[in-house]
Amino acid sequence: MNNTIEKWRKSNKLNKLLNFKGFIISLTKIENTDANSQGPTHFWIALAKIENKSNLLLQLVNESQNPKIGDKVKIVLRRVKNPNKTEIIEYGYKFKKIN
Amino acid sequence: MINPLKFSNVGIVSYGVYIPKFRIKTNIIAEHWKKDPLTPASLGVKEKSVADWDEDCLTMALEASKVALSKLKLDPKKIGACFMGSESFPYAVKPVSTTLASMLGMKNEYFSSDLQFACKAGTSAIQIIASMIESGMIDYGLAVGSDKSQSKPNDVLEFTAGSGAAAYILGNKKSKWIASLKQTVSYSSDTPDFWRREKCSFPSHAGRFTGVPSYFKHVKNCTNALLNHINLKSKDFDYVVFHSPNKKFPIKVSKQLGFEKRQLRHSLLVENIGNIYSGSSLISLANVLNHAKENEKILITSYGSGAGSDSFYFLTNKFISSYKKTQIKSQFKNSIYLNYSDYLKKMNIL
Amino acid sequence: MKVYIKGGYQTKFGELWDKSLEDLIFESVKFALKDANFDIKNVEVIYIGNMLASQIYNQNHLNSLVSEIFNINIPIIRVESACASGSVAVNQAYTVLKSNLYKNALVIGVEKMTDIPSKKISKFLMSAASSSERLSGITFAGLYALIASKYFSDYKITSRQLADVSIKNHFHASLNEKSQFPFKITLDKYNNSPIIASPLNLFDCSPISDGACTILLSSEKQKNSVEIVASKVATDSISLDKRENICEFKSTKIAALNSFKEAGIERKDVDLLEVHDCFTIAEIIALEDLGFYKKGEGYRSSKEKDSYYYGKLPVNTSGGLKACGHPIAATGVKQVLELFNQINGRSGKRQVKNAKVGLAQNIGGTGGTAVVNILKK
What we know:
The structure holds 3 protein chains of 3 kinds.
Chain A: H1 4-11, E1 21-30, E2 43-50, E3 55-59, E4 72-79, E5 91-97
Antiparallel strand pairs in A: 1-2, 1-4, 2-3, 4-5
Chain B: E1 11-18, E2 22-25, H1 26-32, H2 38-43, E3 47-50, H3 57-70, E4 79-85, H4 97-104, E5 111-115, H5 121-134, E6 140-148, E7 163-171, E8 179-191, E9 194-195, E10 204-205, H6 211-230, E11 239-242, H7 248-256, H8 270-273, H9 280-291, E12 297-301, E13 306-316, E14 336-337, H10 340-346
Parallel strand pairs in B: 2-14, 4-5, 4-6, 11-12
Antiparallel strand pairs in B: 1-7, 1-8, 2-3, 6-7, 8-13, 9-10, 12-13
Helix pairs in contact in B: 3-4
Chain C: E1 4-10, H1 21-36, E2 46-49, H2 53-56, H3 62-70, E3 76-79, H4 85-98, E4 104-111, H5 118-125, H6 131-135, H7 140-155, H8 159-173, H9 187-191, E5 195-197, E6 200-201, E7 211-218, E8 226-235, H10 250-263, E9 272-274, H11 280-289, H12 300-303, H13 320-324, H14 328-343, E10 357-364, E11 369-376
Parallel strand pairs in C: 2-3, 2-4, 9-10
Antiparallel strand pairs in C: 1-7, 1-8, 4-7, 5-6, 8-11, 10-11
Helix pairs in contact in C: 4-14, 8-11
């Protein structure tokens, strides 16, 4: 369970890769989300090669429908889970398909 | 009592708009509640934008701000203020504007606050930043209006409360101005037309009281006050933008103020995105700026319940023609339409 | 100094509702010592592999727990390397005997996972992955699904080839009374199972299991001792996105290279394998990383039936992780015990003929740790 200070340390670095682009090298749709107390029950995860950087593994935002290996993506900021009533909201990177 | 200050050091240098991809048609909402589809039809709103479960006023503000910054070769460290207006801040105590500033790479020496004044919180941000620039306190400032607008299921507001954000960077370098700010004025009162109590998820409103004694009174008085201060008439303006809680109100108030329908062009996006609360007038203004030419006069009056209006007179500059336009209408394409239960999940109601 | 296995015991793997963590430890140790004809009083050191007791039961300090169970005061060391905990424990015991510091060592691998909902277990299992992977919401099935997805794209295989692996492992498990799923499956059953993380379905994924396995290592040879001729550990990045190629595990390749060198044997000398099929794709990749099949051809092992106990190179005669079950830290020890039993001719209906040399490969996470143990008569 992430604590507040750990979230803060992470969030201080979040401006670094925003809007960076890449392309998908592997993809999976998580269908059975026993583990996931975070948000929707079905979502895509992509491994993408990021321009001038190495690979990154991130969730795809819901509006990026029918993703395929080779699709271009960019990095955006989203909530990583539905927070409970008292905790600090945690934000993180996700991929969004771009044309 | 406001002293009519002629601004000479403030202009819009860049702007950005973000509208989420998801939509829900208002007749789907009406069908679900077995309501007369004439109700949303009469409001003039066909569909509204819906932010996803993992979006909030911060993530949308960031998207809009990033767009604004991308059009400008400006080091974010030079931005001296970040003010954000919203009705859907996720915290009752803890600023979101500082998170936004941090994500944009602003350094720590900047003015900042989260602003609350219903749908005019975004334009309040513009006024504060304009004042700071005019006085010489800062060179550049970021003003944002962003909302994941809340509405109670089965309430009439549900037809119009949409999601989105607009970000404006204002600055004092004339050579970078898309439009200069000439004048601004506000008209405020204590009017309980629409409110949301602490710990409540959804706002309440006083029905028809939100009309004449609220929206119309403040928008008209504020606009007239501005026109008096600057000694211009409604016909002198190329464009006018009014806050759009629906499509009916801005059309009606513009008529009452002596504006023609033509002057409202490009400002009525409410039909397809709904009322984006603090973002509403600023998104409409952005679409107008996307179409405006050099040396055109724009009047914009926002409205925030509770209540108050901010009016602004902008004059477009020659730089507007070479400014790379913010993609607004393209964000209306390839929308993903939701059914009612998916809409509730995305609004974190279900 | 040579190191031998003298005996061992595996509990049943499965949903063992009436057995606690302590019960599993007790049962596996008691019967392992009986099999080795050895008294606990003479055990000099114990290595206990376990991954999840601290998260599920808030129970650390397992060394002291074992001391309490058996009323002993010898050195006991807890080992954790995610799913490789058991084989790393074997490796540590082997290393300490090789150095002649001790003459014998007991290795316990134990896991009790089924008391809590699978939602929570899946979350705890992600402690074997990186923090950014956890943040993405991905599950372990999702991580291996990403590997499978890339593998399918690069080497043009499909789920049909994964099905062959699952069918084979279930076939072996049907001959192993200790297995969690002692039944065969058909291709239809495989094809009709729900997708867990595309392209992996339920029958591509190893289950959540309880179980324990204990073996006794000794530097003294006796009649049915089997020598551990090599035991090597290697590691790689915890994050999948830090790897150059996600369709191979560098850690397995390095551990294999080093263990073949240490054992002084060649691949053709190996009679059978126990590999880490946490997901079916992992078995295919393991066979390639270990050098038994060319890259992209690991699927042939099960397709051409070579991996069956009667085939050219049997793989996972225990039923593997998929069908024998996967109580995390018990698996690595079970693999070694399976090889020991096969080499000693004790494997009943799934006996591999003339088994003399066996190789076990055990993985932690997505290849963050790999262990290769080689046994020889």
